């Protein structure tokens, strides 16, 4: 029989995306439309603008992905879409579209947790990666350490008690007047600065539970900006180093609490940061573990990771009913 083909849809934040992936991890097509320009004047994602933009972008992206792969909807075997967590208006657009396609074409539907998309994405880029692995999931909305045992089978070892790592990058960018989205801008500025120039706190460093906290760091960055004593690159570099120190200390702690891991893995938008990747790679080497990080385009939001999570869930028999709800909050 022909290889199973999964259509994946993503619309939980400010990227609209559609992708076609095979059950053995070949990416046949992936299309993405970013809404960055629409949200830029507001310095962050406006939910109402996002939902409307998803409505306009999604159908043409699906058609473009099918055209790229030289396929029709009939040849797709499984329809997968992000069903949460995220901005509810956008999630509903993607999920309702997937339901309509699944119903019309008579194909199974898979409701994917966006976090599971990120969590399994390293297995799409590295087909040798085996369960269980320790995952640092760092995005705009989440900062977690997960034990990934299989599709639908996760243990959360740590989370943030306030802001997510990407949120801290975005807020720091705003404070420094670097624009939106903040992460890449802060990384660029940090490359020109001295990471030791500004004394900043490392919240929760050394505590037994490997949780995160970034709110205090954000306040300290605000005070550093207001003091007028430091250059933007120095603040950016010092901030990035403080985040790295926290991520490394907390992940090192989690490694001592998780036995039998095959690898240390990072995923989510913040994993696009080269300095963070380098520090994690060193940590993995110190523990004699392989380090796995998806390519940059697969770290930030995309539909290939949703299609792939759909592929993994389909293979495990985890199919959803057409009544499955969109969920703004949905812990893994
Ligand atoms: O996973 P993602 O695309 O969307 C969410 O699910 O949140 O992550 C977006 C987040 C944003 O906060 C963005 O500023 C951050 O990832 N990010 C970065 C970098 N690229 C994106 N943070 C630090 N350094 C980067 N190079
Ligand atoms: Zn994401």
From TrEMBL:
Catalytic activity line of the entry: L-threonylcarbamoyladenylate + adenosine(37) in tRNA = N(6)-L-threonylcarbamoyladenosine(37) in tRNA + AMP + H(+)
Group of enzyme by EC: transferase
Domain Gcp-like: 27-308
Gene Ontology cellular-component terms listed: cytoplasm
Pfam family, one: TsaD
Note describing how the cofactor binds: Binds 1 Fe(2+) ion per subunit.
One GO MF term: tRNA N(6)-L-threonylcarbamoyladenine synthase activity
The keyword Signal belongs to this UniProt entry's keyword annotation: no
Family: Belongs to the KAE1 / TsaD family.
This protein's name: tRNA N6-adenosine threonylcarbamoyltransferase
Annotated organism of origin: Sphingobium xenophagum
Gene designation: tsaD
């Amino acid at each position: 029989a022909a290889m199973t083909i999964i259509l994946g849809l993503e619309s939980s934040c400010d990227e609209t995306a559609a992708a076609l992936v095979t059950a053995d991890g070949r990416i046949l097509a992936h299309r993405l439309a970013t809404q960055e320009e629409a949200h830029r004047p507001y310095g962050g994602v406006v939910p109402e603008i996002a939902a409307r933009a998803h409505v306009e972008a999604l159908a043409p992206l699906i058609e473009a992905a099918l055209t790229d792969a030289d396929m029709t909807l009939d040849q797709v075997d499984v329809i997968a879409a992000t069903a949460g967590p995220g901005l509810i208006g956008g999630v509903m657009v993607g999920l309702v579209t997937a339901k309509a396609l699944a119903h019309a074409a008579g194909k199974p539907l898979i409701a994917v947790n966006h976090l599971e998309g990120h969590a399994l994405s390293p297995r799409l880029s590295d087909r040798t990666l085996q369960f269980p692995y320790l995952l640092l999931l760092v995005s705009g909305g989440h900062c977690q350490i997960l034990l990934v045992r299989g599709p639908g089978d996760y243990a959360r070892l740590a989370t943030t008690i306030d802001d997510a790592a990407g949120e801290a990058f975005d807020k720091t960018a705003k404070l420094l007047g670097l624009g939106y989205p903040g992460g890449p801008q802060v990384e660029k500025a940090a490359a020109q600065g001295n990471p030791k120039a500004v004394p900043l706190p490392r919240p929760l460093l050394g505590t037994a539970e490997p949780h995160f906290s970034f709110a205090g760091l954000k306040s300290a960055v605000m005070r550093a900006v207001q003091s007028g004593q430091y250059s933007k690159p120095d603040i950016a570099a010092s901030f990035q180093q403080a985040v790295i120190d926290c991520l490394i200390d907390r992940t090192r702690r989690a490694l001592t609490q998780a036995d039998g891991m095959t690898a240390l893995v990072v995923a989510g938008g913040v994993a696009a940061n080269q300095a963070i990747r380098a520090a994690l790679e060193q940590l993995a080497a110190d523990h004699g573990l392989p380090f796995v990080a998806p390519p940059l385009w697969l770290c930030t939001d995309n539909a290939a990771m949703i299609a792939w999570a759909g592929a993994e869930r389909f293979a495990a028999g985890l199919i959803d009913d057409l009544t499955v709800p969109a969920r703004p909050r949905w812990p893994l």
